[in-house]
Design a protein that fits this description.
323 residues; Porin; 14-stranded antiparallel β-barrel; 2 helices
Length: 323
């Protein structure tokens, strides 16, 4: 009963307060358009990416998030264009958020080595309940009436926009994104439920082990970070990847003291296969916070496929990891 109470309590908080946060991915670089519109076309040729996340999988009804995107770099126009679709369904009430977006970026070359990519995105949001809602005071029995009125609307719709800026060289990148510039209203009642703006700052560096003469090493270590702030909640993640073609291994720590609303949130372990045209990654979030007795972590799978690859390396490609 205690576990069920905690679970329903989280559902109520996430579903009916304006302070709810956006869904997040542990393999956020595998979902580049969700991270920022500057990543539209930040690849060679065309790219299709898909992601599935099952959070708190041992609960009666877990949090499931899906994402699909497509983007392409038009070298003749120094521009990248992409579209993405994200669906997040939370808990036994099937509280769902659906987002479809259009993304654009423009690549500017500076001093032959630096690239700058501003980006813009416009999206459509739909927030609704697709199942039965059960409040905390109704858990004692099916015939006990709840004290909270049912939502007036089955779903709420609004439009949104975002902007980002990314700069990078061959082995370094740094960028930032501001989401929810239009502050969409997703309330299912007559009152407002404004999604607060979200600020993301990210970056990293590649370190390649020295190889023999005329034969560079295949070992690459990548150090990266992601900082997010949305409303009163902030989070800083740091991680490291090791890549030796085609194997990728990685570990992330979520919950850096002083930069996180929940200190010591999770350890994230990642393993994947990365080739020139196809990537597949799996990650597991091991909970290390006070929620450990109620949650056993999260699973996440990502797939990326590239096609129409140019014969020469595209100037639009960004060196960041793809997991």
């Amino acid at each position: 009963m205690a576990k069920r109470f905690v679970y329903i309590f989280f559902i109520v908080l996430l579903g009916f307060q304006a302070k709810g946060q956006d869904p997040h991915f542990s393999q956020f670089y595998a979902n580049p358009l969700y991270l920022g519109p500057s990543f539209a076309g930040a690849t060679e040729g065309s790219r299709v990416a898909a992601q599935y996340r099952n959070q708190w999988y041992d609960q009666p009804s877990s949090f499931k998030t899906y994402s699909v995107s497509y983007d392409h770099y038009f070298s003749s126009f120094n521009s990248g264009v992409g579209v993405n679709f994200v669906s997040d369904v939370a808990g036994s009430s099937n509280l769902g958020v659906v987002q479809a977006g259009l993304h654009y970026s423009y690549n500017v070359q500076v001093f032959n080595i630096w690239q700058i990519r501003p980006g813009l995105s416009f999206s459509y949001l739909q927030h609704g309940i697709f199942g039965d809602v059960k409040f905390i005071d109704e858990i004692d029995g099916p015939d006990v009436p709840g004290s909270t009125p049912a939502p007036a609307l089955a779903s709420a719709r609004d439009i949104d926009a975002g902007a980002s800026l990314l700069t990078y060289t061959k082995g370094f990148w740094l960028g930032g994104t501001v989401d929810h510039l239009l502050r969409p209203n997703v309330s299912l009642y007559s009152t407002e439920a404004i999604i607060p703006m979200k600020i993301s700052i990210y970056g990293g560096i590649d370190v390649r082990r020295k190889g023999k003469l005329l034969k560079p090493s295949d070992d690459v270590m990548t150090f990266a970070f992601l900082y997010k702030q949305q409303g009163p909640v902030q989070q800083l993640d740091i991680g490291v990847y090791w890549h030796n073609y085609p194997i990728v291994l990685g570990i992330w720590y979520r919950g850096i003291p002083g930069f996180n609303s929940q200190i010591g949130d999770a350890l994230i372990f990642l393993a994947g296969i990365k080739t020139n045209s196809f990537n597949i990654g799996y990650s597991y979030d091991f909970t290390i916070s006070s929620l450990l007795p109620y949650t056993r972590g999260s699973h996440e799978i990502s797939l990326t496929y590239k096609f129409l690859l140019p014969k020469r390396k595209s100037i639009g490609a960004v060196p960041c990891p793809e997991f």
